[in-house]
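Good morning,

Both structures are done.
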Amino acid sequence: MEEEENNYGSAPEMPYAMNNDRASIIEKINPDEIVELIRMRLMGRSRDNKTGDWITNPALKDNAISEVGAWDITNLVLSVSNANTSLSKLDDKTIRKRAFSLMEKSVKMMLCNWREYKITNTAQLGYVAEIVFSITFITLKMADAEGIRKMITSMYSENRSISEMGSIKSGKKMFR
């Protein structure tokens, strides 16, 4: 019985090595860092260079919104700012429509929840709306004409070709 558990407990080996460059690029598309930065800036905070902690920045105070508002807005942005979206195939019309839609939704959320989000003036609405539109548009543009997807595919193909050439030069037979 113990022998059977050992057989089932380990996964089979991969028939080929994972391409570290490709995996690294996909990991770098992860938007968590920029979304966290936007969230903190919306709350009027910036990172202290000495300690690395987030501190209230007096220069950002006038346009700052509440923590609840910052989380709601950045969660909305996160719906498009992710690796799956970046690897998608989108056209310009779809990108513009989606970016405008998210900006419009963020403005409606701020109007409906103005007290909870600590919206005190119309400038805040425009400030946050511009941030939402910009980050959404830029993120979606990465998917325009499969840009990132094509780059990763070409890297994978190039890497595969180089490794195949190495096998031929070293006298190994290749099976397809």
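Second structure follows.
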Amino acid sequence: MKIIILIATILLFIGCSGGVIGSEQYETINDVEWTLNGYTFSNTTLTATGMITNTGDTTIIATWGVEAEFYSDSTFTLILGGEQQFFNVNLGSGVSKQWTLNYSNPDIVESNYPSFAINNFRAFIRKN
């Protein structure tokens, strides 16, 4: 029963960030390259930063976003939740943009996860 409550809580929290990771209301942008620059943490926030580069032949038109799932560590066996960041700039072919994803949950102490990791990156655009 505790597992069911934990899963429901995680799903509800992910939904509060503006969209569920992998949500069908967004269309995945495929021709991108991800670079992970690093992780930092505090008592209240887990932060991941990196770069995304448009490797396709066409411009990614604003508004678009990036998302990823936050895990307790690099074994990717305990998911903490997910986060998104939106951009109001076009991203031309060969152009890069820095991204920052901040995860915070009032039900956990983020500093308990100094070895957290992110996975399941996705660039997306809202479907019309």
